[in-house]
Amino acid sequence: MRVIDLSLRIAEGMPVYPGDPEVKVKVAHTYESHNWELRQLSIGTHTGTHVDAPSHMHPGAATLDELPLERFFGVSRVVRVEDPTWPEGRGLFFAESVGTECFDRLALLRPAFVGGELSEELERALLGIGIVTYTGLQGLDRLPVGADFMFYGFPLRIAFGDGSPVRAVAVI
Fold first, then answer.
1. What SUPFAM superfamilies does the entry give (predicted)?
2. Is 149 in the same domain as 88?
3. Separation CA 10–CA 23 (nearest Å)
């Protein structure tokens, strides 16, 4: 069994989507002052490796805290746009940039989640039909193409959450 971390490291000054809040990490307590260490984080809900809820782009749609936990993990596969078929009943990830040219096929398959470098238009369309999306992933090229793996990407349980940073993990 191999465990592959697909997450970006959260650090002050890391890149964010234009207009999103900057990442700030401040030491709030030190061993010297409090006998423990504690950091204060200030981040947007779509910082780094994150999951998007349908409510992110569609008013009144499901929020993260309304979705069952089963929507954030499962058997998955990396696929290519040019693959003649994509498997049913799996989360699907793309190691290449993809856009709305994939939407019809994805809408037919209805995976619980889709991840990779997705165009904003594809993300909006997928969220519109209730498919959660994962972006900001790193290392998808380390996963086997055409072979199943288990994916885990649990969000924080944010009330009315439109998105959340995740620790995205593949288990092969």
1. Putative cyclase
2. yes
3. 8
Shared domain for 103 and 166, answered yes or no, is yes
Same domain, 157 and 86: yes
pTM of the predicted protein model:
0.94
8 Å CB contact between 41 and 25: yes
Q: How far apart are the C-alpha atoms of 172 and 165, rounded to whole Å?
A: 22
The residue range of the domain holding 91 is: 50-171
Instruction: Note whether 171 and 43 are within 8 A (CB).
Output: no
Q: How far apart are CA 134 and CA 147, in angstroms?
A: 19
- pLDDT score at 103: 98
- Do 65 and 28 have their domain in common? no
Over range 79-94, report the average pLDDT. 96
Q: Which residues contact 106 (CB under 8 A, 6 or more apart)?
A: 92, 114, 126, 131
Alpha-carbon span 155 to 157, nearest angstrom: 6
